[in-house]
Each structure stands twice: as C-alpha cells, then as structure tokens.
Amino acid sequence: MNTPSLADLRASLPGLKLLTEAAELEHYGRDWTRRWTPAPLAIALPASAEEVQALVRWANAAGVAVVPSGGRTGLSGGAVAANGELVISLERMNRVLGFDAVDRTLTVQPGIALEAVHNAARGHGLIYPVDFGARGSCQIGGNIATNAGGIRVIRYGNTRNWIAGLKVVTGAGELLDLNRGLIKNATGYDLRHLFIGSEGTLGIVVEATLSLTDAPPPSQVLLFAVPHMDALMQVYATCRARLSLSAFEFFTDRALHHVAAHGAQRPFGEDSPYYVVTEFDAADEAAQAQALAVFEHCLEQGWVSDGVISQSEAQARSLWRLREGITESLAPHKPYKNDISVRISVVPAFLQAMQALLTREYPAFDVVWFGHIGDGNLHINIVKPAELDYPAFIAECERVTELMCEVLQQHGGSISAEHGIGLVKKPYLASARSAEEIALMRGIRAVLDPNGVMNPGKLF
C-alpha cells in the first residue's frame, strides 16, 4: 500500500471529520486485544453512507487499506490498524432512522450502541433480544460484522437471526441494499448473510434493519454452586426440561475470584469449583415453584451444593454481574483468550478433554473458564504469570492453542464461536474450515473487494 497525502483526502471530502493526533490514532487503532501497537494513517469519521462510499473509493484509488471501526470491543484483533491503514469509524452514524410497527422492525445506522438499540425497541413495547456485557459500548455494525452472540443465544440465536435488511458499501465502493426487510425473498443468493460475520473484509455496513420481538414474561435468575464438572450438563438438562430458559451460563471459581476482586459480592459462604447462572420465565407462582423444585431435585442428586433465586431486579443484576463482569475484571491482566464451540451434545466429552489438556499444559497458569453451556460456546482465558514476559507468554499460549485445535477437530468444533478470526485466530482457521471452503471465501472476497483494501490481513 502507498502512503498518500491526506491533503488529497481532505480535498476530495472537504466536510469530512479527520483525526491525526497521536492519542487519537492510538485510541481508534486498537481493540480490546492490546497485542498490537496501533499505527493507522488517520481516522475518518463519516456522517453518511455517501461519505463512506467516497472514502472507500478514495482508498481504492490511493492504494490505502481500510479498517472499519465500531466500538472496538472485539477480542480477536479484527479492528486493529497497525500498518498505516485508514480507520473508518462509524461512531457519528449513530441514529435510529425509523420504526415500522407493522413489520416490527427498527432501522438504524451502524454506529448506534447496542444498549441504545435496546432502549429504542423498549420505547415501542418490543425488544431487540441480542445482548451481552459490552452492550453500552459495542456498536450494532460491529455486532453484525462478527455475528455476535451473547448470553441469550439459547432462546434467540445470534445476531444473524435478527437482521431483516442491510445496506453495505462493498470494497469496490458500491452501495448494496440487501433484502429490504422482506420475510420471504426467494430470488437467488441472500447476499445479506455474506456480510454478517465477515469481519469487515467484504465491505462496511452503513444501515441495518433489525427485527424486533415481544418482550418475554417476567423472569428470575437462579445461581447454582456446582461441585464437579460432570454435574454441569445434568443441571442443564434438568433446567431445560422443566423451565423456560432464556440463558444458561457457567463460570469457574477462578472467574469468581477475579470478579469478586473487581468489586462483586460473593454469593455463598463457601466456594465451589463451578457455578451456573440461569434466567427463566417466572410469570406466576407455579413457574417460581417449579424453579424451587428444580433446585431441590438437583440438590438431592448431588449436582448442586447451594443456590439462590433472585427476589428483585436488583438481586438479579447482582447475580448476573458475577458472569457479565468476568471479561472486565480480567482486562487489566491482558489475558490470552480462546473462544471455542462444539455441538451441545458433544459438550460433556469436550469439557473432559479440555480439562485434561489445560491441566496438563498450563500447570502453573491461572486458567479462567466461563461460557454459554446452552449453546456449546466456551471461553478460556489464560492469565499471564507476573514473572513471564509477554512475548514468551503469547508463544506458550499459541503452542497450547495448536493442541486445542486438534481436540476441537476431534469433536467437530470451531476455534471461534462469536469473537471472529481477526488477527488472533488467523493461524487456526484451517482447523475449522476445509481448504476448499477457504478458497471459496477468498474468491468471494476478491469479487466484493477486488483491490484488497478492506481490512487486509484479517481472517486469511
């Protein structure tokens, strides 16, 4: 890529907000990975789809790479700009553009925060059900680019399930209007789904039409202390059979240690090696009584050793903080993260295999597990020992990740469940995709981004 004069860009887009100060370059040039030194050419903050088109066309003409940027809460290096790229931040494109009461859709710009989407949907008596801990800072465009999942996938599915239409600017600067909110549209390839989960390698989302749904009935949160790993799936099977679940999450004692050190209150007098937090519909006394019966059954079977059911919204938030606060509590330690998935039916065997691998390969490391048991997604965070320098720590973790990929292949799993590939997982893509699939993906990218300006170096 060339190093063009920014004066050319300013001349071609005189109304564009362009940032070049060192602190701004550092802020916008990185995501939560913190493993790469940001070094973008500049930060462009367009205010319209037309400006995004003009920026991409300029990048093609000037031979400049582009990195699309949202809330930069990603954990795989997908929004890192470390090689003189032009960062296109969508944060100024953050408005709700329209609501359709009949279709029950909300049309938004890509820079709107997920929490703002939630608030807008509630204002119309509906919900946008995709949710996770970074809701206040992540942006809907980034959620689409990574097909974000979160804590309620067990009921509502991933972001993909809730995208009724998209407007995107391709890597060639063309504006595409995809699906237009249609429920049925049997007119060939659904290009909308190519861009969902593409990590900014095919184009930039400039508008999204989101499907909304009815708010669920009142719910309660139930926290279990689980004495051994084998019991996790027994508890899940019991809860799924007897309760109407919207979430089922687990975390380990080491996760609780970090969250408690970050200010959360420990839920029980005695620690347990594993914990489960589950949310379920509790619209009436019968549903609440059923939850108590589930707890008593699990207690009798020895699958849980203690438990608590939320009695107020404040207590429910407090219990959820134990799970949702894990990533934030670990952030100061700059952990090495694995985000992996298998089919739900394979989870018990996979948990055992992973426990054996991690115990063997990380005997002296602080290993923090948590994840979405209900959809087969596990997060494994490795905390760097104080005495080990960072490059050596990363090298050791990458060695173990190679071994983890072998276990994943044996169990038909994926190296990235919801964080994307980015820079972090790029070496391991072949563990989850065949050579033929990767070749086809490269071919698709070449069509939509013929000059290779869109987020180069990511994914492949």
Could you describe the 3D structure shown?
The structure is a single chain. By secondary structure, the chain is of the alpha+beta class. Among the domains are: 96-214, Uridine Diphospho-n-acetylenolpyruvylglucosamine Reductase, domain 3; 219-327, Alpha-Beta Plaits (2-Layer Sandwich), CATH 3.30.70.2190; 334-419, Alpha-Beta Plaits (2-Layer Sandwich), CATH 3.30.70.2740. Helix content is 34%, strand content 21%. The chain is built from 15 helices and 18 strands. The protein has helices at residues 6-12, 22-28, 49-62, 114-122, 140-146, 153-156, 192-195, 230-242, 253-261, 285-301, 313-324, 326-330, 347-361, 390-410, 435-448, and strands at residues 17-19, 42-45, 66-69, 86-89, 96-100, 105-108, 126-127, 163-170, 175-178, 203-211, 213-214, 219-226, 245-252, 274-281, 306-309, 336-341, 366-372, 377-383. A seven-stranded antiparallel sheet has the order 15-12-14-13-17-18-16, sandwiched between helices. Strands 5-6-10-8-9 form a five-stranded antiparallel sheet. Strands 1-2-4-3 form a four-stranded mixed sheet, sandwiched between helices. Strand 5 (96-100) and strand 6 form a beta hairpin. Helix 8 runs antiparallel to helix 10 and helix 13 (347-361) runs antiparallel to helix 14 (390-410). The chain is globular. The chain starts with 5 loop residues before the first helix and ends in a 12-residue tail after the last helix. The model has no long low-confidence stretch (mean pLDDT 95).
